Amino acid sequence: MKKQTVAVVIPTIRNLDFLESWQDEFRDCLGVIVEDHQKKEVKTPNKFFKQVYHYSWQDIDKELGKNSWIIPRKNAGIRSYGFLKAFQKGVDIIITLDDDCYPVKNQDFVNQHLENLSYWAPVDWFPTYPHRSYFYTRGVPYGIRNKKEVVISHGLWKGVVDFDAPTQLLNMDLNIPTSFPFVEFIPENYFYPMCSMNLAFKSKITPIMYFPPMGYDNKGNNWGYDRFDDIWAGIFSKKILDHLGYAVVNGAPFVEHKKASNVFKNLEKEARGIHANEMIYNKVMKVRLNSKNLAKDYKDLAEQIEFPKELYFKSLRKAMIIWQRFFN
Prior knowledge:
The protein is an alpha/beta fold. The protein contains eight helices and ten strands.
């Protein structure tokens, strides 16, 4: 079997000393660093990867030209550009990791993601014994097993939980220990809160893995929404994956999330998005897709979602359509 090529995409605004703790975990991977600065200021972490590609705003603007506005600035959604570059380099698997996430003992991080992405999920039934190596227990019909290709591995975390700001305020001292290394399939026609701090997917689905504009655009204008880039990307992608018969795995591998962002700043950033989020997934559920092509389905989804009638969502629709053109 051909060895799969893996790219690790890391968005950052700070030094990448956290990679020291990962030691040689990524020694066989390509590193794709997307620095959220005008010019490269962070030292390129060559020693941790097989090869490193390091980008900043200058590279985004140079390559994408008039379309560079669809890649946000001062926001972790800038990682979308890293996804595009990894796809262009022909890798099989894309892993994305935040720069405040650290390894958990006795876990084989990259290989667990690869194992998850080798699974095939059942249809119609929900297995009740999640485990690191997937098992079907007594009573699960053989005819429904191993039918849907897994294309997203959604890793979890210990330590600082990925709460929204209101929940974080109510649980300021909560620190989650490592769970046993389970994996489970997200059921069809269910959405999930996709978190980008520990995520892997097959490169072939990059046309639907665009993180919406949040934070600021390339002219320094505030988009008015923040901290929902990965959440809304998860809603959009899951809709299409369900339509096409693909599956998502959730669980191991875990990372240790050590830094909590400022809860009061997050309250301000999330305010408009929390309201919109209550509506968007319902609008996505109502869309009817007919194509069997990822990029075409993504374009159809963008055109059909009944977004709120405000400038941001007009821009989001346009950005989604531009993104899928990169893959035609």
